[in-house]
Amino acid sequence: PENVPRLFDLIQVQDEQLKTAFYFALRDTLVAQDLEQATRIAYGAERHRVVTLGGELIELSGTMSGGGNRVLKGKMGQRVVSQSPASVKEIERMERRVETLQQRHQELQQEHTALEERISTLAPQLQRMNTDLNKFNIDLQTQEAHEPVLREQLKKQKEKLLAAAPDPVQLNNKRANVDKARKSYESAAAAAEEVDKEVQKLHKQIMEITEGRMKAAQKKLDVVNKKIDKTRQDATRLKVAIKTADRNAKKSRDKIANMEEEIHTAETNIISLRKQTEQIEQETKKILDLFNIACDKIKEHSAKQMDLKTKLDKLEQEEGKIKLEKLEFDQKLEALDAHIKGIKSKQSNLKKSRAPLVVCLSLVHSEEGEGLSQHGQQRASNSGSVECGVNLGFIVDESERVTRAGSLNQLEMEEIPGETSPMELCKLTKEQLDQMDFKQHQYETGLKETELASTEKPNLAVIKEYKEKSSLYLARVTELMNVTARRNEVRKLHNLCCEKRATEFLGGFKIITSKLKEMYQMITLGGDAELELVDTLDPFHEGIVFRNEETEEGSREEKRRVKPVDAITDEDAGKEHGRMEQSQLRNRRQEKKQVIIMNVEGRMIKTGEEKKEIFRMVFNREEKGDHSEAVE
């Protein structure tokens, strides 16, 4: 994949026979440029064994090794030293050496097998011995605990014995009396034996005489004797029970005394804790007062902030309206500029056609000194000079305007809006006027009027439609600005939520990791549990994956129940039983260790209930004494 070479293909050797050994060690290991490419190739659709140029190695199982600050080099030679072929004797010697080593290897294998069998045989014995050792240690601790009591009792008995020592004179007298009594007893016993023999003889004779009558009485006597024996046994058992009850009562009284002392201590602690609680309540009240003051200040600042935000929103809205109005005015101004340019072009054309006529009429008026209307009538009646082919009404209007002006010096051009340099009237001489063709000017004026009349009227509906489209555009722009502002707010809120989510998740993840490691080390006595993120840049992309790795040390055994020792009391037996169970639990935890690590091969844990179940089963397994396989 990705055209990366095999490590085997990059090795060059002089002896081609050695390549088989290299392939046996390297197989199809690929060489990647960096760890990112190696991870992409190793965890692809098909698994590969990949090594990077920096020394990191990813196995087929997914485990990664290598790295570090220093890279070890030079472990493999760069060149193969060429050697001359060995002699036949050397080869035979080496073959004999190989055979000897093979025989030694077989012998060692046999010894190894025998030792393994012996280990498997002795392992249960060792475990039983360890159990017996624990039991003997417990017995020893119990006996050591009872030793001071027994020594104290022995000391008291010695004191009682010394206190009860008899007087020697009286003791001798008593011994003499005992000797006399013993002699008399012996003589009496001898006489009693003779009497007993006589009695037995008589009894035998009586039994022979009254054999049938005595059977029923004998049976009754045997029954009564059995009842008497049973009653004696019950009495003995009840005496033992009474002694046990007295002993338990004494222990109960001792416990009551201890509990009273504990109650007294607890009351003292409660009083001190109440004082501390009162101090804490006072400090809490002070803190609450400060907190309320801070909350009030925060509310005031929040209200001020809201007011400022409201004002800012209003200013932004006003700014938007002003921008819209400015845009509308700019559009109107552009339309007016275009309209003014059209008017200027028309005015310039009309100006060029009207200027010569106005100048001509003003000169004629100045020469004749009369009204322009009379001069026109005379020039129309007389044949000869210049004929002016202009419209009489137009000339009359112009003559009236010129008459109102009073003189040629007072004539002015019409002011055109937007024109910066107005055209000045030129003064023509009489010879120039005589040379002008007024018919030609009249003809050109008629053409301009005809052209103006034939021009199509402007479509004012287009202007109305333009205004409607412009208002609709401005409304859409306003709506777009509002939506954009809302989008920016939502985007900002989304970014804040994402940052808060990631921050809280990573904080909780660190706490869970530390607690997991702490709890697992505590319940397994040295085990290790680790949680890692698949992608540190995006912790929510892949989720959390669990993989169980078990290390079995020794054989698994069911939990044994330890019976109480007969020599100790019931309470001590319960304590010792609890100690034995704790010792067995500790040994069992040392036999089995579980490691939870992150791995992309495992099943995705998607729901919160599944996560809780996994943690509950892992943490409670040792407490329940369950030695089954780890849950996948």
From TrEMBL:
Residues 91-118, 171-318 form a coiled coil. GO terms for cellular component: condensin complex. Residues 3-42 form the SMC hinge domain. Residues 570-590 are annotated as: Disordered. The keyword Lipid metabolism does not apply. GO terms for molecular function: ATP binding. Pfam families: SMC_hinge. Keywords: ATP-binding, Coiled coil, Nucleotide-binding, Nucleus. GO terms for biological process: mitotic chromosome condensation. InterPro entries: SMC_hinge, SMC_hinge_sf. This is SMC hinge domain-containing protein.
